[in-house]
Amino acid sequence: MSSKNYLEYILNPFDLLRTKKVLHVNPTIIPERKDSTQSVIMVYEYNPQNLQSFKFNSVEDCFPFLQTDSKTWINVDGLKKEDVEKLCAHYGIHQLILEDILSLGQRSKTDEINGLVFCLLNMLYYNDELKSVETEQVSIILGKNFVISFQEDATRDVFNPVREKLKIPVSKVRTSGSDFLFYSLIDLIIDNYFLVMEKMGDRIELLEEDIIRRSDNRTLARINHHRKEMIVLKRNIAPVREMISGILRSESHLIEERTEKYFKDIYDHIVQATDLAENYRDMMMNLQDLYLSNVNLKLNEVMKVMAIVTCLLAPATVIGGIFGMNFDEIPWLHTSYGFFLAVAVMLVIPIIMLVIFRKRGWY
Fold it and tell me: What is d(CA 296, CA 98) in angstroms, rounded to the nearest whole number?
């Protein structure tokens, strides 16, 4: 752990700021999105014979691709309100979809407006340094011969496999329609969910080992931290199932019948991801119970030791109390060996008690 992270842990071991960020949701208050400082627009124009890629800094350069016969993928990394509004206006994207693209903290959803299929979901990443799950809102629009995707972060995504497949002339992405590209982008996002959950699973296994070895406040803080990350996973993964179901129920002419089976495959994957997230959530609850059991077990061990010590000292206390009474006549009070006899009895009785405790398996 770095000095910065360690200091943050000391000041806030239970990460209360993370709790507020994870659990605080108020849909009536629309958070303001700040324009990205960096915006990258990549355009891929392709057909089975040719592939051309372009990198633009201005959205106006994307306008001519609406009239081409080839299929087009426009990927906008880093959102600027003015650029998004211009692009949506030129491609006939409804105002409601525009608001969803520019919004923050949206639940995964799908819509079909003005003959366009729109879906919104979150891309998940696992930050190894902070040991936390990070999200990035992604909006994907399917139109006739074009797909437009909007990403918040211009520095990372999971779409590189699609870019590589586009370079292969005989690949399914190159030879199929825009709906297959639409499917491929969603499929990569969902497949990345499993990579994030795999890393979370490894962290949970390590946490379980630490709980068995030692159960202290730091372990409790880690349990609390992982529990919050599982809430992030569940909140972002569960709604995608409904989103894919909405695409399957859609009767849009943009999604060909031969592509529907691929969306059914995605649906199976997201069901599996949802079940896995639920299993991890149950594991965290079990780890919390294991922690409490270990704490109670340690407390019982301490109480047992204290009870044994109290029992061993009880004979000496009784004998000392008897011979300490203010009577004139007490047996062996005035003899030279009385003191040594009393001490011997005080030692012999606890030894006998220890032997009896040992035979009964009390320690």
Answer: 55
**Structural domain boundaries enclosing 243:** 3-294
Task: Name the pTM for this structure.
Answer: 0.79
How many Å apart are CA 234 and CA 231, to the nearest integer?
Answer: 5
Phi, psi (rounded to 5 degrees) for 23 = -100, -20
Whether the CB-CB separation of 70 and 45 falls below 8 Å is answered with yes
In a domain, 302, yes or no: no
Q: Which of 297, 290, 302 is nearest to 212 (CA)?
A: 290
Q: Is 69 in the same domain as 125?
A: yes
> What sign results for the dihedral spanned by CA atoms 175, 180, 186, 191?
negative
**136-154 confidence digits (pLDDT tens):** 999 999 999 999 999 988 7
Do 341 and 247 fall within a single domain?
no
Query: CA nearest 143: which of 82, 208, 92, 68?
Result: 92
Same domain, residue pair 32 and 99? yes
pLDDT digits (tens, 9 = 90+) for 280-336: 988 988 998 888 888 888 888 889 888 888 888 888 888 888 878 877 777 777 777
